[in-house]
Amino acid sequence: MQEIFPENGIDFTVHYMAHIEPNRKWIIPEDSYKYKYKIHKGLHPAFGRFYAHFNPSIITLLLKKDYDFVIIGGMGSPSHWLSSLLTPKSKFQIMSIESNLHSTNRKDGIGAWFKRLLLKRANAFQVTGKPQIEYINYFDPKSKNKKFIKLPNLIDEKIFRDQVKKVSANRHSLRNDLKLDEKTQAWILPAQLIELKGIMPFLKLLRGIQNIKVFILGDGILKKTIQEEIDTYNLPVVLEGYLQQDRMIDFYAIADLFVLPSLKDSSPLTPIEACAASLPILVSSRIGNVEDVLTENLNGWKYDPIDEEIKGKEIISEIARLTLSDLKTKGKKSLEIYNLKFDTKKRIQEYAVSLKNLLKN
Prior knowledge:
The protein is α/β, with parallel strands linked by helices. The chain is globular and about 65 Å long. The protein has helices at 4-7, 56-63, 78-86, 109-121, 130-139, 157-167, 171-177, 199-205, 223-232, 245-254, 270-276, 290-293, 309-320, 324-341, 344-360, and strands spanning 14-16, 37-39, 46-47, 50-51, 69-72, 92-97, 124-127, 147-150, 185-190, 212-217, 237-239, 257-260, 281-284, 300-303. The longest helix has 18 residues, at 324-341. InterPro entries: Glyco_trans_1 (IPR001296).
């Protein structure tokens, strides 16, 4: 954006509600901020797994009115709510939505009423795909008459496509370090160890499966429970814990399959990373961007982890019988999908043009 937006006459600043979420361990280099930004001070109370943000300085900023349009990144926190309610009607408001109907709990009552109130305030919507449009129309049917612009979640392709390809030259050595022979499939499941990621139901489907080794890359409150399941049923699964990016690249380079069995997930980045890394994917049909990352049976498989346990078992058994060459062929299709749908420069250029057209009209 820092390159393409100015070329299209768009001057922008990103306003962050916090430096990082409390439950994340990301290390974010300062030189990654190559655009104008501000990290606002505020209150950040936690309510279970919900982290709220209240930033008075963001509200003050909006009331100054020295801007043409504002893009509000969702409806998940008090700062989002107040930004929507307090943006002057003379300014063009775009609401960015990543949620889908599978990933939301409050579909009626006061929660639904408040979502409808905020959606009505928006002049247009920014979505990652079709499930987000369905979500918006569900809560505010009249919104279908408004403008929608698409911006899929994007990743750093220099890392997950180009760097992974480079590291793959050492694939044999890396697999030896992990005690993987050239016949055993390496599956990676990068996720927080929490209930919504569907790891426990997925582990149940692995009982009796051979010819695979699953590496779960993440940490969380279910670590002990997951390890007990692995030990009890002698599952071919290794808990690797939380990994920084350089080590994650190694696992993308040695993997033969990417897995994400989430019970709920709005629009996860990891399947996009997997496509960029030329991996076939096995994903939950409940992730919000499943239609974007998966062409079923071409570059992977999907199943509903809640309602399709038998189908999930059948798919896993089928995959385990494939050769590494079979999986590699499907992985090449993932890369084609990535280059077609998620190429960063093309998508940002289209997005910039869409923004300009919205403001003109």
